[in-house]
TrEMBL record:
Lineage of the organism: Bacteria, Thermotogati, Thermotogota, Thermotogae, Kosmotogales
One Gene Ontology term, aspect cellular component: cytosol
Residues that, per the record, bind S-adenosyl-L-methionine: 61, 112-113, 129
Signal sequence interval, chain numbering: none
Protein's UniProt name: Ribosomal RNA small subunit methyltransferase G
Protein's cellular compartments: Cytoplasm
EC number(s) given by UniProt: 2.1.1.-
Organism whose genome encodes this protein: Kosmotoga arenicorallina S304
Role according to the record: Specifically methylates the N7 position of a guanine in 16S rRNA.
Domain of life where this protein originates: Bacteria
KW Nucleus (keyword) present: no
Length: 221
């Protein structure tokens, strides 16, 4: 099912953005509704507009629920898990989910390394935005998706500087780059959705113990 907007989805997205910018726990530094629409909705929606997402997906390091809640609204026939290690964020996201009456999404308080222990190769795809360097993100995500699944990384204009390190990590994790979707939120805001495909099993030593992916990234320092 491709991403498209109808009245019901628009209403839910507008409501969610209002919840987010008025969050009790400051889940976003953005408080202006127009800026929130651009950076928390358009940034997610534009590269997904022509994609067909079906299955069981995870948003790793969801923070305030972006991109996971936006994706859950856009793709109601898919299942979404929103993962974050900070309990107060997860509790507020659960409130958002309830108020929006979303039946296809759940929030889980856990680190990605811990979640992979019982959920290895469970997901069709993993999304990450504003979490860490690309090579670190790939180590968190690769064990969680099944062969043929994809990892979707939202990256800024600095993607080219990350590319070599990410490619090295991908080669160790059973991934290959599928495509890069370039887009603009505004004329001066260039963005990339970098998509990796899982082509073979991720070695059992990944993910490494909590914190190691950041201390000793696969792509080097």
């Amino acid at each position: 099912m491709k991403a498209f907007l109808n009245k019901d989805k628009r209403v839910k997205i507008e409501s969610y953005l209002k919840f987010l910018i008025s969050s009790r726990h400051n889940l976003t530094a953005i408080k202006d509704p127009t800026e929130a629409y651009q950076k928390h909705f358009l940034d997610i929606y534009l590269p997904l507009e022509g994609l067909n997402l079906k299955g069981n997906f995870i948003d790793i390091g969801t923070g305030g629920g972006v991109p996971g809640i936006i994706c859950a609204i856009l793709f109601p026939e898919s299942e979404w898990t929103l993962l974050d290690s900070i309990g107060k964020k997860v509790k507020e996201i659960e409130t958002f989910i309830s108020r929006l009456n979303l039946k296809n999404v759940r929030a889980v308080c856990q680190r990605a390394e811990e979640h992979a222990v019982l959920n290895r190769e469970k997901y069709s795809g993993a999304f990450m935005r504003a979490v860490a360097r690309a090579d670190i993100c790939l180590e968190y995500a690769a064990p969680l998706i099944h062969i043929g699944g994809r990892i979707y990384l939202y990256r800024g204009p600095g993607w080219k500087e990350e590319k070599d390190a990410a490619e090295h990590a991908a080669s160790l994790l059973g991934l290959s780059i599928d495509r890069v979707i370039e887009y603009k939120i505004e004329e001066n805001i260039k963005r990339n959705l970098v998509i990796y495909k899982k082509v073979c099993p991720t070695p059992v030593e990944f993910p490494r113990k909590t914190g190691i992916a950041v201390k000793k990234p696969l792509g080097g320092k």
